[in-house]
Amino acid sequence: MPRDALQALQLERMQKAVKWAAEKSRFYQEKFAAAGVSPADIRCLEDLRKFPFLTRVELRGHDVFDRLTLPLSGIVRFGYGVAAGVESLHLYTQGDVAQNVEMMVRGLVAAGVNKTSVVGLQGDLTSSRLLDVHHALEIIGAAVVPLGTDYRRWLRLMDLVSMDAIVSTPQLIMQLVIQLQAVGKDIADYAVRKFFSLNENGLQNLLQSHVVQRARAQIYNFFALPDLGMAGALFSCSERQGQHVQEDYWFPEVVAFDSGEPVLDEGQMGELVLTSLAAEALPLIRFRTGQAVSLRRDPCACGRTFVRVSTPFRAG
User: Fold this and answer.
1) Cα diameter, the chain
2) Is residue 143 exposed (0-12), middle (13-18) or buried (19+ Cβ within 10 Å)?
3) In this predicted model, what pLDDT tens digit does every residue of 52-85 receive, in sequence order?
4) What's the pLDDT at 313?
5) What per-residue confidence (pLDDT) applies to 315?
6) Spatial distance between the Cα atoms of 182 and 186, rounded to a whole number of angstroms
7) pLDDT average, residue stretch 164-172
8) ∠ CA 308-311-312 to the nearest 5 degrees?
9) Torsions phi, psi of 178, nearest 5?
10) What is the pLDDT of residue 316?
11) Distance, C-alpha 236 to centroid of its chain
């Protein structure tokens, strides 16, 4: 989509998202009133800067039902998880699930997954994010191999099924490498040449270099921060030129860590701030992710017009 059309869509959705949050969520009603702002203040994309930031501390200090924008009769899925000892509960409407799956489809297809692919899902399928991946793969037409969390099941299925890709977390990927080594096998001898890493702690898989060397495979990153409740907001560029932000669903900003002032210079590092543009049950307005990034708006070799973020570590 051309940038001007995309920005027009973003503004339309941003106005609706802020209005929805202000009308339907007690949490945002109180937050916006305290800041002296209202949905009518959104006349252009830059007007979002008038609104207060949302932090992890705030999210975890308030009951999720205070943020909820509709009755429980509109909820079709509850998602529960624990990361770094912190519990998270997410609620999803049918629309939320459909949007999350669509974003995941895009990210997987961008990395070359298609109906000929055989993809292993490593982890607990009670995870809402893995469920999104499972649905996305079925929509694509790829064959799905649920690997679970038992290493004996991993080893057996690795021998039974020739998988060309695995979706997992950094920790479970390394466990797979180690368990294969423990029985005298080398992961590089298998057909797996792509790993999709659901990163709960940041944009990057910090074990990435080691896995690439051991498995001789490519790693594609998904930003699976627990507070987002999904993993498809960003996806690795197929040309390894950073990670594209799914801008029709998420509006990105980069702000200074110390002041929150906007970082407007191309390539300058700051903190990534994300605003959901179409979330229904639990919208996020100006959520500070804690991630150090720079925005890249120059034309991408892959042809996509979504902006990209780069981290201080690696492009992809």
Assistant:
1) 64
2) middle
3) 999 999 998 889 999 999 999 999 999 988 777 7
4) 62
5) 41
6) 9
7) 94
8) 145
9) -70, -40
10) 45
11) 11
**pLDDT, averaged across the chain:** 93
What pLDDT sits at residue 287? 97
Closest C-alpha to 135, from 191, 80, 86, 96: 96
Residue type, 145: V
On the CB side of 245, how many CA atoms lie within 13 Å of its CA? 25
Handedness of CA 288, 290, 292, 293 (dihedral sign): negative
Half-sphere exposure of 55 (CA within 13 A, CB side): 6
CA distances from 41 to 12, 45, 67, 164, 170 (A): 13, 10, 21, 50, 42
Find residue 210's DSSP bridge partners: none
Beta bridge partners of 79: 90
CA dihedral 171→108→274→54, nearest 10 degrees, is -40
Distances (CA, A) of 19 to 45, 143, 251: 14, 41, 16
Question: Pick from 282, 275, 291: which is nearest to 77 by CA?
Answer: 282
DSSP secondary structure code for residue 244 in this structure: E
The model's pTM is: 0.93
pLDDT at 299: 87
Confidence class of residue 153 from pLDDT cuts 50, 70 and 90? very high
| Cβ burial, residue 201 (10 Å; 0-12/13-18/19+) | middle
C-beta of residue 120 within 8 angstroms of C-beta of residue 157: yes
Q: Which residues pair with 293 in a beta bridge?
A: 270
In contact, 10 and 248? CB cutoff 8 Å:
yes
Q: What backbone torsions phi and psi does residue 130 show, to the nearest 5 degrees?
A: -70, -35
Cα dihedral sign, 214-215-219-222: negative
Supply the Cα-derived Rg of the chain in whole angstroms: 20
Number of H helices, E strands in the chain: 9, 13
Strand 287-296 and strand 234-236: the pairing is unpaired
| 314 has pLDDT over 60 | no
Which amino acid is residue 298, in one-letter code? D
The confidence band for 201, taking pLDDT boundaries of 50, 70 and 90, is confident
